[in-house]
Amino acid sequence: MKSWITIIAGLLLIFSILTGVQATEDARIFMDGTAAYNSGNWPAAIQAFEQLAANGIDNGRLFYNLGNAYLKNDDLGHALLWYERALKHIPEDPDLNFNYDYALTLTKDEPVKQASPILRILFFWKYQLGADTIRWIALALNAVLWGSLAVLAIRKKHLLRPSIILVGAATLIFSATAAFNYIEAARIKRAIILPAEVAVRSGFSETATQLFVLHAGTKVKVERQSEDYLLIRYTKDKIGWVRKADAGII
Q: Are 242 and 77 in contact (CB under 8 A)?
């Protein structure tokens, strides 16, 4: 925890030199949040770290620390929400995965598997690497591939060398995965139930028929949104409306 706090603080301080007043303020907020976290003042740490997220800092370590602060503050719903957001950036982090798995054991509803074990094995890179990492790998491989093809074309060398074929295959795989991740993020939204208990109803009001109940930390799929409500799907046959304030979109 402390080593990553030092790294992030250093990055924020560098930002403050390069970009001025706002980054200086972000660095101050981060240091205040870190001090509050280390002293066990979880509400103050949460307030500081969430302010940084609201200011546009999109960082997996920040989200991980927010999840930790919420978990220590006995707020399972928000803890899992921020752990899920952190997993988008650093899915391979062992500390994050350990805390995430532990938090899942505290949930009351049976988790719905998002992907089969076979898919996770066949497409392991998608689940082991973050979307940002996959995108950068795809860009780097494209640069290497097209640069190599250009050099070989100029020198009139044989294009179907084994190394070029391997680079081309890797480029295709990572480019396709990056495109799939982009489409999935744009079209498929998931959310985490935040309060200890939420009634899922058939309509937009508190008087609508209660269909079933979900509890803090449960992951659901967002089917549709209205101004104040979300239409969520828990399982194939369990679908209904909850207030937006009761479910945080990942």
A: no
Q: Which part of the chain is CATH 2.30.30.40?
A: 189-249
Rounded Cα gap, residues 130 and 5, in angstroms: 21
99 CB-near residues (< 8 Å, 6+ apart): 64, 67, 68, 71, 83
User: In this predicted structure, what is the pLDDT of residue 50?
Assistant: 96
Domain with CATH 1.25.40.10 in the chain: 2-104
Q: Provide the Cα torsion 206, 211, 212, 215; round to 10°.
A: -30
Name the least confident of 36-40, 177-181, 235-239: 177-181
**pLDDT higher than threshold 60 for residue 95:** yes
Domain 2-104 is found in CATH 1.25.40.10: yes
Residues 6+ apart with CB under 8 A from 89: 58, 59, 60, 63, 130, 132
Distance CA 96, CA 81 (A): 13
Q: Output the pLDDT for position 3.
A: 54
CATH topology of domain 189-249: SH3 type barrels. (2.30.30)
CA atoms within 13 A on the CB side of 28: 7
List, for residues 44-77, the tens digit of each pLDDT value: 999 999 999 999 999 999 999 999 999 999 999 9
